[in-house]
Specification:
This protein is mainly alpha-helical. It has helices at 2-23, 27-37, 43-59, 63-75, 80-104. The chain is elongated. Residues 1-7 have low confidence and may be disordered.
Length: 106
C-alpha cells in the first residue's frame, strides 16, 4: 500500500509541476507532462490531464483538437467537459462566420 501511495503522490506532484509551467506560459512542457498522465490508472487524474490538454489546445488556436481532448476528458467522467465542448463548438461556429464576413467584405 505504501508503494502505491508514494506513486500516486509522485504523479500528483507532476500535475502540480505542469501547473507551474502554465503559470510561466510554458505550455509545451506542461503538455508533455499531461500527455504522460492521461494513461494513468487514476481516472480523475487522466480526466484532469485531458481537460488541461483541451485548454492548452484552445489557447494555441487548435479548437477542434481542444474538442477532441475535452471529449476524452468527458469519457473519464469530467462533468465540466460537456459545457466546455459546447463553448468550443460555438467558438468554431463564430470563427467560421467571421471568416465568411471577411471574405465577403475585404
Amino acid at each position: 500500500v505504501r508503494s502505491r501511495r508514494q506513486r500516486q503522490m509522485c504523479i500528483r506532484d507532476r500535475l502540480k509541476t505542469a501547473g507551474k509551467f502554465v503559470r510561466r506560459n510554458n505550455f509545451d512542457d506542461a503538455t508533455n507532462i499531461w500527455k504522460q498522465l492521461i494513461d494513468s490508472d487514476d481516472k480523475d487524474l487522466a480526466s484532469k490531464a485531458s481537460y488541461n490538454m483541451a485548454l492548452a489546445s484552445e489557447i494555441k488556436g487548435f479548437l477542434q483538437t481542444a474538442i477532441d481532448w475535452a471529449k476524452k476528458s468527458q469519457s473519464f467522467g469530467n462533468k465540466l467537459a460537456s459545457s466546455y465542448i459546447t463553448i468550443l463548438k460555438k467558438r468554431i461556429s463564430d470563427q467560421k462566420k467571421l471568416n465568411n464576413q471577411l471574405i465577403k467584405n475585404p
